[in-house]
Amino acid sequence: MAKANNKLSKTIRPSGSRHLSIDGGLIRAYLTDAMESMDPSDIQALLIKSQINPRSLDTTGARIPFEKVSKAFNRFRLFLNDEELGRFERPVRSGYFRLMLLAATHTESLFEALQRITEFRNVATGTLLHTLSKEGSQVICYITQQPNQKIVSPGALDFYLSGIVRILSWLGNQPLTPRIVRLSFPPPGYEFEYRYLYYGASVLFNQPNNSVSFDQDSLSVRVVQTEDSLKKYLRQSPRDLFFPRYIGGSTTESVRNKIREDLEVEQKISTLESISEFLFCGPQTLRRRLQAEGTNFHDIKLQVRRDISIHLLSKEDRSIEDISEAVGYTESSNFVRAFKDWTGMTPKKFRKRT
Q: pTM of the entire structure?
């Protein structure tokens, strides 16, 4: 296997996690299954030991420092003696996650790693069935609640789907952005966190299934992590294992926001030159900054156009021609081809399914 380098840490990790914070609602969602089986006094004690005000989990807009959340997760896991935090019928013994990742590091490609991960999860849990399906140019991972088993929370479904994205990104040592994420539940209060949970992918709610889809080509990336790099990864658990890893950086976010503003407000298509001028730098400088953050201008622009297209198709009753024009296509036929490349289906078929 190829040797891992520090590209991922440079492209998606900030200068220091101590400055990061997470929405309290997301933490409650991730801990819901654990807290259902615990006495309220024990819950409060574990949170206070982690320097977290228990009320912050239910306070709209409350933010909790990243490192405190990591400590809380470790304490809850030790208290329950359950690596999966009460999400299944039976506790999962400590070491399961390490063995799953260890097996994944001995695969050749991200697709093989995804197969290995789903096999491990199906054996360990029994409550959620993970299945893979190749549909056109996409590989879709479905997570299905098994009958006559404990009903897992929406937070648990989020946890496992986003976990697949982060694990594969680590294994390939580069951010892996899904095509589309489908969730069976309504938008939660922490919806804005999804841009980090799923690396900016489009997320659809109230869907008939829970799934995450990837470009088939993106899963051909080689696995570069090893047993040695896994040791370091696990030492940072759960900081890197269970919470959003922040893709890109300030330049990526600025470019993405400006492209979206140009389309939605100015009704114009951004160019590398226009964005460079807006950011007071030259085109070559902007290219270098984006490359250092693991992305490029072309990909960001495609992602923004894709996201706006999906939003308009799923939320608003507008014609395909109108949507095509709204995202900068002068010919609707070109938009249809592009949309099919993004999602594996035509806009009309996509609208029917959503």
A: 0.70
